[in-house]
Amino acid sequence: MRTLKFLLQKEFKQIFRNKALLPLILVAPIIQLLILPLAADYEVKNINISIVDHDHSTYSQKLISKITASGYFQLADYGNSFQRAFSQIEKDKSDLILEIPQGFEKNIVRENEQKLFVAVNAINGVKAGLGGTYLAQIITAYNNDIRLQWVQSDKFNPAPIIEVTSSSWFNPFMNYRVFMVPGILVVLVTMVGAYMCSLNIVKEKEVGTIEQINVTPIKKYQFILGKLIPFWVIGMFIFSVGLHIVAYFFYGIVPVGSLLLLYGYLSIYLVALMGLGLLISTFAETQQQAMSVAFFFMMIFMLMSGLFTPLDGMPQWAYIIAKCSPVTYFIEVVRMIVLKGSGFADIKNHFIIMIGFAMLLNGWAILNYKKTS
Amino acid sequence: MKQFLSFVRKEFYHVFRDSKTLLMLFGLPIVQIVLFGFALTNEIKNSKIVICDYAKDEATQQIISKIEASRSFEIQKTLISHKQIEEAFKEGDIKLAIIFPANFNNDLLHLHKAQVQIIADASDPNTANTLTNYATNIIMDYQQELMKNNAMSFHIVPELRMLYNPELKGATNFVPGVMALVLMLVCVMMTAVSVVKEKESGTMEVLLVSPFNPFLVIISKAIPYLFLSLINLTVILVLSVTLLDMPVNGSVLLLFGESALLIITALSLGLLISNVTQSQQSAMFISMMGILPTMLFTGFMFPLENMPYPLQIIANAVPSKWYYIIVKSIMIKGLGFSAIWKETLILFGMTCFLLIVSIRKFKTRLV
User: Fold this and answer.
1) Which of B298, B330, B172 shows the shortest CA–CA distance to B240?
2) CA A28, CA B279: separation in Å to the nearest integer?
3) Fold for domain B47-149?
4) What is the pLDDT of residues A139-156, one digit of tens each?
5) In angstroms, rounded to a whole number, what is the distance separating the alpha carbons of residues A296 and A183?
6) A145 at interface of B, judged by CB pairs closer than 8 A
7) Which of residues 204-263 of A touch B (CB under 8 A)?
8) How far is A6 from chain B (nearest CA, A)?
9) Which fold has domain A47-150?
10) With contacts defined as CB-CB under 8 Å, which chain A residues touch B124?
11) Interface TM-score (ipTM) > 0.90
């Protein structure tokens, strides 16, 4: 116990004396948390539309004003050449083209049926899909308007109507930030924690001070604990600042669920994360090596964690890989507790898995740290 | 010139002797392009939903079997009471609940009007929105079928054509993005430590007292990474064409030229970081903290035009944003240089700026 105390004293001194790095570690994540959630907004609005109107009739004008009035679309270009509209798509100036053929009005009235051509830039499939759906909805609504003008509805035998009412729970205003802030906070804490931890032992190797520790009677687990606890504290600190100051004051997010539960999970998560950092650190010989390995894992963890893209859409094998990363579980848990107020019973499995991660990674790190070279 | 070559050789030795880093340098881009090319998708399918059916009649059964048949949904269980919905959401997996009131079919047939309620777990707004739309569409489909006897008059049929990506694959969007991300981050990270490492280990002093031009010292640091990154790029391109079925509609030569430009830009940025930091740890921390902003501001995750205006301006300073536009234009749209000269010019300007600043910042005196 006494040995550990001295080790901790040494580690904390080293951290606090590093005047160049310490402010960076504490401030950079907070600044990123302030800015980045604003950038992560998937609500598709401002879809730019090019309209090619070969008809120039009252009907085509009505349709165009209905589209522009909907709020989803911005008229980027209006003309009568498809070529020109297509070059707008090539330049990324517009996302979709609506082509109104000649005789649009005449055909609706006389032939009872008329086609409209819609071409969507589908490089980003989601945006294309949504844009196409919105446009189709507007056209259907417009179609109904026209039909009402011409057809008297049958009062005694109306068509059956199913009324769909939808409600959104836990986030009634569909605010994307509420969803992103907890996730980004997790990633930032993860990066800082894993980064510092993985560089730490390896730095002692590079500088040569690890030899001095190896010749003392310090036990392996004491050494690992001494490295782990300071960063655990810093991780806790950054998470708390992010949650209680940035998320609360700037985004108005108040955790619905129990804070005790959240912190309980965080503390286990940090132990697992530090374990990963230490493990990398025991394998690497130089800081550069440790860094590139940590970097590798961070990228995978971040992109596969369900932070930005839904896990359900992934192929099975990718889903399994995603489930092998502690970050995935923590993001899930944070979102569940903060947004939905899930209780312990709901996340029991998550707890068990994270404890497993913590034991596995730390155990491996202790085994892999050799006092003799 | 001979001096310069021997310096480049020295740098190559540094890189090649560190086999673990070298492995990472090659492994990282390859693994990531393959992994993310397949795994990243915004498509929402197999979402788990619950159904609470108080009616249990013919109409609800038909709608439910329609929902069951759709690829988007996977009915997890049928609930007995709506009180269980909140519990189901809190357990986490369930994304949507659909509730049919009692007497659904009766109402529909006799009152010509029936109600369905859809409740979405909107803690993920995007998924909630999409799923609600899908479910509404399925129910509306059913309604259309009921109306089939009434002939449609004054019918407008929109014909939808998906340009460039008819199957709406995620890879078409994500592969250029991941390419930009990986090239950019790997190059920055590797060069960021190169100069500062010599400072830390003390060999910088030896370099500075030599009669060698400091400008060339810096340039020679970047050359091995430029060389390796070009090899990396080739591997990435081959993989994305063969494995991920990405098209290369434009000129391959142009794509290489532009990629080389991005690599040089990233290397210059790395050199700048390396010149202004005092320890490897700080240099690495800066490049690590760059991951998230690069990811978001490249624009392949979230549409840039949705961001608040100040952030759109910040995004302009991220080189990979321009490269992403270039790659999309060349690979997918098959456009020539005339379409992307502006982006190229911007990248070129950035490179010059970064190189000049990092040479200026390179101190020939140790403090």
Assistant:
1) B172
2) 17
3) abc type-2 transporter like fold (3.40.1710)
4) 888 887 887 777 665 555
5) 19
6) no
7) none
8) 24
9) abc type-2 transporter like fold (3.40.1710)
10) 179, 310, 335
11) no
